[in-house]
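Researcher: Predict the fold of AAA-ATPase.
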Amino acid sequence: MAVSFSSIPPASTIFGAYASVSAFIMLIQTMLNQLVPRQVQQYVLNMIHLYFRPRTNNATIVVEERDGMSGNEVYTAAETYLCTKIRPNIERLKISKRHKDVGVNIKFAQCEKIADFYDGVELEWRFVHEERKKTSKVIDEDTDNVLIESEKRYFELCFDKKHKEKAKVIKAEKKVVKLHTLACAASYSSSIVWDSINLEHPSTFDTLAMDPGEEKSIIEDLNRFVRRKEFYRKVGRAWKRGYLLYGPPGTGKSSLIAAIANYLKFDIYDLELTNVKRDSDLRKLLLRTANRSILVIEDIDCTVELPDRKGPRRQPCTDMDRTRTPRPRSIRKFFPRLFVFIKSTQFTLSGLLNFIDGLWSSCGDERIIIFTTNNKDKLDPALLRPGRMDMHIHMSYLTPHGFKLLASTYLNVHDPNHPCFLEIEDMINNMQVTPAELQRSYE
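Model: Structure tokens for AAA-ATPase follow.
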């Protein structure tokens, strides 16, 4: 289709329309500046920018040079690290050397971007240098003098939000497992504290003299427990797991606990029930334990005598008994405060059960409770039911497989078909020996 040039308006007409629109816009702008306060205009513009700004998947961490009047050690560490990442494309650097410095100090002089990678995660560092609207006072860490600073410097660390959970994984992998115990053996009615040291027990599942099938089932159960957070929340149960380790002394119950802690990177809280005087003490101890931890009560059958929930069944009284001893109901009647005090200063089986799977058991996540005992039959059946002790693990006497593992560890005998093994297996099957007894003979 041919275009007729006669239909196009002349340049003077277009320029006149443009001038009219420009004059109208300037008139509106002048009226807004006169009628609308500057703060209101800035607020409206900020809201418009906030609404129409492009959405980003990046997360940003700001590391400022100063924290109040003092320096920020994180900023210093970041600056030291980034000086090793300087690339040739950086245009300006600041170099200085004080009298006591060994080498030359290199710092950034203007806003720069540095690409970095850590464990497959792409990171971007930005050095920001801007003038302060108001001067601030800072302390020189070398001379302790108060200085006036008019500049603000900080680093920005940007990364994709999808990597935020990766930080938890890295932290868990580098975590140092702690062993917590009560600070002293006195009564903890007024103050209960945990004291901790690093757990340096070298036990792992590879060094345990256990049956391979039993060991595999334990590892699978632990893996299933730690990844079922949503399942426990869905069914309305506390995220915890109970294990009962029972068997003769010296069969590796403590070593298995250390292996579980090293495998999961969980802290261990070693609770001596003899230090717990009442149920309220136990609740305080529970509230002071962290998530992702193991609470251990060793030798629960002989640590303390727990009063039964129902108590001993009372025999019917004769006339002679009534004349010799007052009835308990009479004691409660005439000394009610004494009765309440005595009852409140007891540590009962009910308190322990409420701690395991009652309301107080839901005050934390990802908890493991482990009981150990030499005699499973001595425990109250209420402690053993599912939901309290979910998995019962029998630590038996030494087996042929356990002996081969110990021989490989202590004697460097790695051949499973060694000619001596057949004779030794017959001896092990005909006698009861614990791994601890055999390990002592290797020393």
